């Protein structure tokens, strides 16, 4: 990744009309309905944006959408990138750097995740308070990282506290059951074994997924306040484990998404 590549991506999007968005949003697996709330959308397909990776997962559509939600200019990633698709950390986080260059001042991230904490249930939403990086690398571990920001980034509080408090207040007002916890990020794409679920619980994880952490690390590198939520689509009880049905996971994500949309749209309104 070079600054020249970033500039080319950003200039292309500006030429399409992506003008000074305030908020960037990353939509997770099965969580695409938020785009229906974007007013006057302008769409850029990933395969048209210079140096952008391509979404290879069938339920990730691969579009960057610019428009207005709750009176604020937003840019939304409909379809994200994962290490399990064969991409590296630089590819996975490239769109975050592009959105930052476009001008976003806040980043919202969503994902579908499995509940490790057995008091959480499928269909719950978990506000991420902290994370455990089990992906075996870092999006900041490249030679010229200091051209883009500090090499050593403090991660004491990676998720913005004021935005987290606002999400909690919005959930209270709207009777949305909001769990809070620690998200562990693994490579995937295989699901975890019973022993791995036990290990994650011992490590202090409340939920597990295959995304989010690289984007959050880069947001912190860019000093970009970030908030993230997990839609919990399955329960990972190693003593009562059943085979995972990916279609059921997508269906639960879709059923729970309206609550996530309400949290995000009201948060946008409050900023």
UniProtKB/TrEMBL annotation:
Pathway: Purine metabolism; purine nucleoside salvage. GO terms for biological process: nucleoside metabolic process. GO terms for molecular function: purine-nucleoside phosphorylase activity. Its EC number is 2.4.2.1. InterPro entries: Nucleoside_phosphorylase_d, Nucleoside_phosphorylase_sf, Pur_Nuc_Pase_Ino/Guo-sp, Purine_phosphorylase. Residues 23-269 form the Nucleoside phosphorylase domain. Keywords: Glycosyltransferase, Transferase. GO terms for cellular component: cytoplasm. The purine nucleoside phosphorylases catalyze the phosphorolytic breakdown of the N-glycosidic bond in the beta-(deoxy)ribonucleoside molecules, with the formation of the corresponding free purine bases and pentose-1-phosphate. Belongs to the PNP/MTAP phosphorylase family. This is Purine nucleoside phosphorylase. It comes from Croceitalea dokdonensis DOKDO 023. The lineage of its organism: Bacteria, Pseudomonadati, Bacteroidota, Flavobacteriia, Flavobacteriales.
């Amino acid at each position: 990744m070079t600054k020249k590549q970033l500039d080319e991506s950003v200039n292309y999007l500006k030429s399409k009309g992506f003008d000074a968005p305030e908020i960037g949003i990353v939509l997770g697996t099965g969580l695409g309905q938020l785009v229906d709330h974007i007013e006057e959308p302008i769409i850029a397909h990933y395969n048209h944006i210079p140096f952008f990776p391509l979404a290879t997962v069938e339920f990730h559509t691969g579009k960057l959408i610019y428009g207005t939600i709750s009176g604020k200019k937003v840019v939304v990633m409909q379809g994200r990138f994962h290490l399990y698709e064969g991409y590296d950390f630089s590819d996975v986080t490239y769109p975050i750097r592009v959105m930052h260059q476009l001008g976003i001042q806040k980043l919202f991230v969503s994902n579908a995740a499995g509940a490790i904490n057995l008091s959480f249930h499928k269909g719950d939403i978990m506000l991420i308070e902290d994370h455990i990086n089990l992906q075996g690398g870092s999006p900041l571990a490249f030679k010229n990282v200091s051209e883009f920001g500090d090499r050593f980034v403090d991660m004491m509080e990676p998720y913005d506290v004021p935005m987290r408090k606002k999400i909690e207040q919005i959930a209270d007002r709207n009777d949305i059951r909001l769990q809070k916890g620690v998200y562990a990020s693994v490579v995937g794409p295989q699901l975890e074994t019973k022993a791995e679920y036990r290990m994650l619980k011992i490590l202090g994880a409340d939920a597990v997924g295959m995304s989010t952490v690289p984007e959050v690390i880069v947001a912190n590198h860019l000093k970009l306040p970030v908030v993230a939520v997990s839609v919990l689509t399955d329960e990972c009880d190693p003593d009562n484990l059943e085979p995972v049905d990916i279609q059921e996971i997508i269906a639960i994500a879709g059923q729970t998404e309206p609550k996530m949309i309400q949290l995000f749209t009201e948060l946008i309104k409050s900023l």
